[in-house]
Amino acid sequence: MKLLAEVATTLERVGIGYAVIGATALAAHGVSRSTLDIDLLLGDSTALDDEVWRTLLAKGISVEIRRGDDEDPLLGVIRVSTAGADPVDLLIGRSGWQRELIDSARKVEIQGLSVPVVDETGLLLLKLYAGGPQDLWDIGRLLEVSKRAEDLVREVDRRIHALPPRCLRLWHSLRDGIDRSS
Length: 182
Hints:
Order of helices and strands: HEHEHEEEHEEHHHH
Radius of gyration: 17 Å
Number of domains: 2
Helix content: 40-55%
Number of helices: 8
């Protein structure tokens, strides 16, 4: 978590909002699964500027910036890494709905570090947006462990239309499976 603390401090210093997503956010919401990195969602392209990371670079921390092209669903991805620590991947979103997830994130203490974590509905939306097999498993587990599963389904139903049509199709196929198993 020391590397996450370094990244969080850097982002806060330059005024870039972020939220923890991925497996670390799942764990904060009660779903445990192993991961080899920590994922953050950002909605500010300023993070793609080399100057933002000069303090970390001066400490010998590696910062790899990859900018997305016009076809990429992300503006870019930044990998921050150093020996002996899980890397931190920063995904810079393109869409307003992604920025809303960052704005609505709530601080959660993770191994002694207080960081904003995307809420359960936002995590489901991000998993639908990614749409891979692991993401589908994560959706199922999150709905299984949540005390608010019915509310989450309603919230996703209400907000899914902000995502690309493929996400709505995926959600409908998952909803069909949820409805049949009830």
